[in-house]
Amino acid sequence: xxxxxxxxxxxxxxxxxxxxxxxxxxxxxxxxxxxxxxxxxxxxxxxxxxxxxxxxxxxxxxxxxxxxxxxxxxxxxxxxxxxxxxxxxxxxxxxxxxxxxxxxxxxxxxxxxxxxxxxxxxxxxxxxxxxxxxxxxxxxxxxxxxxxxxxxxxxxxxxxxxxxxxxxxxxx
Length: 172
Known about the structure:
Layout: H1 2-8, H2 20-28, H3 31-41, H4 47-54, H5 58-70, E1 74-81, E2 84-90, H6 92-95, H7 98-111
Antiparallel strand pairs: 1-2
């Protein structure tokens, strides 16, 4: 019953929000979109492959692929003229979603995979299983939310994104 209610809920556009997280969600915030992106990173390119791996209806899959192409995350590339067939490839904008998807994977591995991670990431350079970490682009030190502050950026137009208090251990 709840799934039916969720499926019929109207999607509210976040495009007017002055927030980079909201803008990312506007493009890939729907769950099928992130699963399509996961499969694209795993090398899936063709409609029928996405459909069979995801078990998604063709009309929903087509809408999600069209949206990902429209927003520049995937590119539609013709691979056959007779019959006309296309495949979907990651663009640079799509590749830049890797840290988002990988963070979701790591969170799921930690909190939702009691039998262990379903996939392991292997660094081709050294052959080791690895986890990605966030580091400061200036000093190279590992960072987490408890060691950062937020200040107004050049694109800020409102007061709503600046926190009232810093992120601390007690704020968790």
